[in-house]
Amino acid sequence: MTSGIREASHAGSWYTSSRSQLTEQLDEYLSNVQPIPALDFNPPVQNAKAIIAPHAGYSYSGPTAAWAYASIPTEKIKRVFLLGPSHHVYLDGVALSTCEAYETPLGDIPLDLETITELESTGVFSQMRKSADEDEHSLEMHLPYIRHVFEGRTDLALVPILVGHPSPAKLSQLSEVLSRYWQDDETFFVISSDFCHWGTRFSCTPYYPNAPSPPNPVPPVPPASASPPSSASATNGNVPPVLIKKYGSSSNTDNGGVPIWKSIQYMDHEGMDLLRRPAETGALERWEAYLARTKNTICGRNPITVLLHLIQHIYSEGPEEKKPVFSFVRYEQSSQCVSGRDSSVSYVSGVLRVPQ
């Protein structure tokens, strides 16, 4: 049984509940998205099949998310699968909404009830309680953007999926189920994830004292200088982060290393680099090894892992030139940490392209 319309429970706090103000805000964010010739990025991206975009309050992550949402070739999409991590309830698998529609200040988004019924019939999914659905921001923070970029489209339908901690066996089942929908040219996938949550309040203080500039910097991170990194060993991606025990001063430069924000930047770029070719043999294993080694608090790690499993399932064979590739087009931090007392959250926008 369906349980009516999911309330926009974070409107008025995480983003404005005013239709006019929200429209103006999203328009402003999207207007700031520009082509990036070096990345062959000129939105909308006609062969885009999925995006990774953040889910924090719009004053923090809204400008970054615009770079992902500007990429969607909306004119040919009728169904959006939205995968977000579960922050408030423990799930040992994946769950579907029981609602008929999701409310936004810009208008409701109907759920694809036929597809949800098909997914329920597989036995792979559980159901979200409506209260858990409304508590979860990882799904809701994408809804205004989805409704806005598909403005006026009455044929758009949503399939929200809350991702917990599916086992390898469950991930394999899920890939088999989702592959049918992936093959549909009118279906698009949105993966909800912030990147590093750094600070003692997140119980996350990994640190590379000799972090170099990222070899593949994501805008607006500048390209690496011609000078060599301070530690050659730090460039090989195999050095465990050093746990920051305590900072006794306001700046970590007194501890003899690079600024904390630069260490975070390098660690996040390590993860993005591992995702660039998700169909490549070993990509999934390298991603999981990176998460285990760095303990990077990428809150959407499990939805990203679901996507990797799905891509590996579908594209394990075939020519390399036909396999999907991620382009990362925006990277921001909520603040630049220089002290052990500081904290920040990183935001990433990535676009997955499937060569035609």
Automatic annotation (TrEMBL):
Residue span of region Disordered: 217-237
Entries under Gene3D superfamilies matching the protein: LigB-like (3.40.830.10)
Domain of life: Eukaryota
InterPro entries: MEMO1_fam
Pfam families to which the protein is assigned, alphabetical: Memo
Protein name in the entry: AmmeMemoRadiSam system protein B
Family label: Belongs to the MEMO1 family.
Bias (Pro residues) ranges: 217-226
